[in-house]
User: Fold these one by one.
Assistant:
Number 1:
Amino acid sequence: METKDLIKKVRKIEIKTRRLSDHIFSGEYHTSFKGRGMTFSEVRQYQFGDDIRAIDWNVTARYNEPYVKVFEEERELTMMLMVDISGSESFGTKNQLKSEIVTEIAATMAFSATQNNDKIGLILFSDQIELYIPPKKGKSHVLRIIRELIEFQPKSKKTDLSQALKFLSGTQKKKAIVFVISDFMMEDDYEKTLKIAGKKHDLTGIRVYDIREEKMPNIGIVEMEDAETGQIMVVDTSAKQVRLSYEKNYRDKINYFSTLFSKCGAGTVSTRVDESYVTKLLGYFKSRA
């Protein structure tokens, strides 16, 4: 992609997602994801209705009138965006590819974190770590993340979430807010690594999918290519057993995703490319508040 086209695309995504984060998500994000705790700010004179447990008795004795301690939320947090950029993310039958929706969601989350002065980091993964951008603050940092999401070309088309979760645990020593954005159509067993990450971090899995992935259409004998392996197969889609087998495999992967994330204390959001991810994310944030 030429630099001029890239800048134009980044700007377009920035305008859309920043508007969402400024007017819709920033407050919900702040409410949903708490800081590390409360830190002492100042003392002030006691006012009617103040909790008497907050009275600072030393200052009260010094001035012969009641004073209370004021605490503020220690807000600064780190958000890690873990984005699947394997071959299956390039699929789409409606107006947008899965990868385009993934980029918009990631950008919206990043701008929401920036509104709250949090750090944002990025892990792009396939069956390996394709790119790691350490957490940092600021608009220019978010724009760099968006640029990478748009133009980065992965070395592999396969997926291995376990490797990505191991990398997360190895690089993020403190608790972070982690969004894993993927279609979760991977073959690997990631239960062990998800459990480890779930104990340490605030995890959410965001599943982006296309309606055409749910069922195989009956269109006769066709050649199909596996987006991640490149393998081409001749499939008789008119065979009922073939279609049922495909649908079962799809349901098994989705059930594994939702059941395992829940078991590990992590949240889940699922949104189709032709649905409003804004509605889905707002509903999720409100359910956490």
Number 2:
Amino acid sequence: MRTNFYPGMDSVQGVKLDFFDENSLRMIDYASMEVLKSPGIQVSDPEARQIFKDAGCDVDEASQVVKIPEYLVRKALSTAPSSFKLFGRDKKNTVKMEHKGKVHYTCFGTGIQMCNYLGDGKYETVDSTDEDLANTAKMVDWADNIDYFSLAVSARDWAGKGAQDVHEMFTALTNTSKHFQHIDPVGENVDYYWDMAVAYYGDEKEARDKPLFSMLVCPTSPLELSASGCQVIIKGARYGIPVNVLSMAMSGASSPIYLASTLVTHNAEVLSGIVLSQLAAPGAPVWYGSSTTAFDVKRGTAPVGSPELGMISAAVAKLGQYYGLPTFVAGI
């Protein structure tokens, strides 16, 4: 199994960025509980709404808004595991996700274009292909400093041909011996991903015990769980597939312009997905995830290399640790 450094250890030299004390975290937590209770979360999947309703949530079918009481959030946080392992085809590439645990790295994604260098300072930008996906998987497999492979580019040559996401899953798994995180899963196709893992192991129990892949799902900011996202969470929980519930809120666009307020809506979005996961299957492995950043009002973009993203990521990491969950943050 791969070994990495622990963050924030006094014995390790480095920079420590610590924005919050316990009282500040508690204030964000309390504010998030208020948001989950009112106005609540729009849940666009009928099965997910029924799961919330059966658990005691106030569900308005006309508006699809679910109001989640605080006790359900606390119960979900108590059953979500503080650590779990990610397995690859080569057992030496096993990594352990931990609450306040070691730092692991993955590649960024999902890109839709590749930059092909032609020499003499010239290059061309073209749509990424299945071959590009395979090559990035092989590159990550070679790179010792990257712990698992996330879908780096999309196989655009499969767009419109049906089940592009399933083909990307197959290409990734067959070109890296490391764990694969599917960043663009489709809820209705999760069963096919699962069939691949079972086929590889030849045994459903082993596929559950040694998850070969995980999935990343984003709530739609502000405050919505999409139909596909809900199915990814529900099926992932029931199959034992780790799910990264990751908000991509943009401060000043899809969330409040104040970073502290953005943390509240971000927190409510991620917690709603974690609650759904634990209601579907208590003990299901989940990340507390973030790719939240500030909106660039001048250029109309979401800069993932901005100082605000670094500040938000540091704050989110603290929130994930506060809840006792393995935490995933974005950065370049």
Number 3:
Amino acid sequence: MIKIENLHKSYQTGANSLHVLKGLNLNIKEGELVSIMGSSGSGKSTFLNILGILDEADEGKYLLDGVPIKNLSEKKAANYRNKFLGFIFQSFNLIGYKSAIDNVALPLYYQGMKRAERLDRAMQYLEKVGLADWATHLPNQLSGGQKQRIAIARALASDPKVLLADEPTGALDTKTSYEIMNLIQEINDEGKTILVVTHEEDIAEMTKRIVHLRDGVIIKDTPVQQKRALDYV
């Protein structure tokens, strides 16, 4: 599903060049649930931006579902993001003046789906995350856990090949974090490929494989015995 070969990325900072990613190699198969861990400055955000087609590597190969991601126009990059990827963010990134159902339906609007059809689809995904009764509520009327469920429903609505979750539990208390991880595990059990960027060991242990980044290189890539979040909720 994801194939990364010899990935390099540098940034110019004034007269200096900062080499952030230093030859990453990584394969992720369809249906995997993988966490990416690393301290601040390890390169995880840069790596996630490249995986999310929000930035491009200087060198190396990136294949997403067999498609080479290289030298894309902004329009083509946006099309690929819409087709292949769903994003879940630490800060939820919901639109404050739109209801829960309209937030979930947003990616479908960009796909050109008619309003009645996209609202019907959005409601299906709200039901999936247990928030159908909150469809007309605005984000400021929801708890942090509910906001993240809405964000997950939005990420799923366009049926992406891969979910990229950037610190999805970072703004939540422990109990709510485990509830969100339980939902992510259930989605993965249905076959969805999911990458979770996290700095929390207990969250990483709820995935099936942990990739450790340090100073722009992968120092460890280990399959783990997955802990089920439901056991801790």
